[in-house]
Design brief:
- The radius of gyration is 29 Å and the shape is globular.
- Helix 3 runs parallel beside helix 7.
- The strands form four sheets. Strands 4-5-6-14-12-11-7-15 form an eight-stranded mixed beta barrel. Strands 8-10-9 form a three-stranded antiparallel β-sheet. It has a two-stranded antiparallel ribbon with strand order 1-2.
- About 35% of the residues lie in helices and about 15% in strands.
- The chain folds into four domains: about 190 residues, no CATH class; about 70 residues, Orthogonal Bundle (Muramoyl-pentapeptide Carboxypeptidase, domain 1); about 190 residues, L,D-transpeptidase catalytic domain-like (Beta Barrel), CATH 2.40.440.10; about 60 residues, no CATH class.
- A hairpin with a 4-residue loop joins strand 4 and strand 5.
- The protein has 18 helices and 17 strands.
């Protein structure tokens, strides 16, 4: 079946351009590759070995990459009028023209320059067209297959390695058998339905932006069901632009149908679905369609940075949505609200594996937290450690709580002690810790601070992920289809003394990701606030394509939770 994102008119029709029309020689500048040499191997070789920048039709081409492709084939053309070359060229130009469907710019892949070479009477193939097409394929295939992250990019809170892809090798393989060409082009985008649904959503927001955008809803006193207000008519029109179940009109009374539409909108934007159009709802309503379209394109880009196959059974956390899902064979089998890092301690993007759970975990307090948050409290209250069941490790005296220490004399740098909080009802890790080894030293865990899960904004940790349904998650990963663990057995194990580490029979892949735009299985486009500013930094990166200077973000604090949890407002 043809992927859903390829069912776009641009793939089937490219402004009347035909394969024959692609065989036309264009006019070039005096310092560019000439078009009068034909497509002999000699002409291609001379063009690639000529000193200085390689430019065609004002476009810079990647000479080393082109040389790496042509040299093993003894500089034989790949797109000439034999062996299916024109057909391949035509299909490639169609793909380049439709690149905007994926949030890419056709101009980056010489689409117009290639099309211009088919604007006049067919006069034979040219070396310039040959090289343009090859360079275009390599650029386009690389960007669509593995993303536009430049070499050397390293963001402080991005922990997933770049996905390797060699476009030159892919092109070489694709040329061996003409029937594989369409398959090769179709294989470039991420194969997941999540990506395809975002691609399908993008044209609608672009069209709304092109038509002048939706109206702005003016701030004021909150609109409530039953109100009669001139802003209600504007609200109807605004909602109707995205929600076909809301009928536009001039009616100014806030009726039940409009309330349902407001609640749907709030749910799609991670807001409390109370039907009250307050400040937060107005702010989301007034984000432009163009900005929403860009939000979609940024998340399409993130998809291209990820592995193409997550596996059949995995855990995925969307930090921007503060939700955890366990997925089995494409279906969510467990969903849970989570608390993630605050803006100063951003939860990182991570690909790892859950290999064990620890019951009644002890919390080894990171030195940074011990110094910044605990030491001042001990100086104010000598019994702070004892009252919070914290002990000093590696202490020879029989004083685990440090009651005999003059804390006013203890330096903060270097801090001479290691602190550990014992299991108990006030331990910030709760009753269960899920081990997910990673270089950031963040993990998933239970928490005694249950009220935080009721908040619409759940950015309140030091980078670790607090999971509401910790017991259910533990039971799911321990059972692993065997039925050997039951809820009763889990409760008995937690009630027993000690902190046992239980290795999982099958380690479970874990993906901690950041989606500010996604489409749910019901087809509703969901948007979330860019809580860490990652959309902005990614947009800057894609605009510059020069590296990661100025794009780094705060790193999470390893060892996670602070001794007191405070909700971000």
């Amino acid at each position: 079946m043809t992927p859903v994102w390829m069912r776009i008119s641009g793939w089937a029709r490219v402004c009347g351009t035909t394969a024959a029309a692609l065989l036309v020689i264009g006019v070039i500048g005096p310092r560019e590759v000439g078009g009068d040499a034909g497509v002999s191997t000699r002409a291609i070789r001379e063009a690639l070995e000529r000193p200085g920048p390689l430019r065609i039709a004002g476009r810079s081409l990647d000479r080393p990459v082109l040389t790496r492709f042509y040299r093993p084939r003894e500089f034989a053309p790949a797109w000439g009028p034999v062996d299916g070359g024109p057909e391949r060229a035509s299909r490639l130009l169609q793909a380049l023209t439709a690149a905007e469907a994926h949030g890419l710019e056709p101009a980056q892949y010489h689409a117009e320059a290639i099309r211009a070479r088919g604007a006049g009477a067919a006069a034979g193939w040219s070396v310039e067209t040959e090289l343009l097409l090859t360079d275009a394929f390599v650029r386009y295939a690389t960007d669509l297959r593995s993303g536009r992250r430049p070499p050397g990019f390293a963001e402080a809170d991005w922990g997933i390695p770049a996905q390797p892809f060699d476009a030159v090798s892919a092109l070489t393989r694709g040329l061996r058998e003409p029937t594989t060409w369409t398959t090769l082009l179709a294989s470039l985008p991420p194969p997941t339905p999540d990506y395809g649904r975002l691609v399908d959503a993008l044209p609608r927001y672009r069209a709304i932006a092109a038509q002048g955008d939706w109206p702005l809803v003016h701030a004021g006193t909150p609109l409530r069901p039953g109100d009669d207000d001139a802003r209600v008519a504007v609200l109807r029109t605004r909602l109707a632009a995205e929600d076909e179940r809301v009928a536009p009109g001039l009616e100014t009374r806030y009726d039940g149908q409009l309330e349902d539409g407001v609640r749907r909108f709030q749910s799609r934007h991670g807001l409390p679905a109370d039907g009250i159009v307050g400040r937060a709802t107005v702010r989301s309503l007034n984000v432009s369609a163009a900005d929403r379209a860009q939000q979609i394109t940024l998340n399409l880009e993130r998809w291209r940075w990820l592995p193409r196959d997550f596996g059949r059974h995995y855990v995925v956390v969307n930090v921007a949505d503060a939700m955890l899902h366990v997925v089995l064979d494409g279906q969510t089998v467990l969903a849970s609200r989570v608390v993630v890092g605050d803006v100063r301690h951003a939860t990182p993007v991570v690909r790892t594996r859950m290999d064990a759970i620890i019951l009644n975990p002890r919390w080894s307090v990171p030195t940074s937290i011990a110094v910044a948050e605990i030491l001042p409290r001990i100086r104010e209250n000598a019994r702070y450690l004892a009252e919070n069941h914290m002990v000093i490790l590696e202490r020879r005296e029989s004083d685990p709580f440090g009651l005999k220490i003059d804390w006013a004399t203890i330096p903060s740098d270097p801090f001479p002690f290691r602190l550990q909080q014992e299991p108990g009802p006030d331990n910030p890790l709760g009753r269960i810790k899920f081990d997910i080894p990673n270089r950031f030293d963040v993990y998933i865990h239970d928490t005694p601070s249950r009220s935080l899960f009721m908040r619409p904004v759940r950015t309140a940790s030091h980078g670790c992920i607090r999971v509401e349904r910790a017991d259910d998650l533990a039971l799911h990963v321990l059972t692993d289809g065997t039925g050997r663990w039951t809820k009763r057995r889990l409760e008995e194990a937690i009630a027993s003394p000690g902190s046992p580490r239980i290795a999982l029979a099958r380690p479970l892949p874990v993906y901690i990701l950041y989606w500010t735009a996604f489409v749910d299985p019901d087809g509703a486009v969901q948007f979330r606030d860019d809580v860490y500013g990652r959309d902005r930094r990614l947009a800057d990166l894609l605009a510059s394509r020069v590296g990661s200077a100025g794009l780094t973000a705060p790193a999470p604090v390893g060892g996670c939770p602070p001794p007191e949890q405070k909700a971000a407002r």
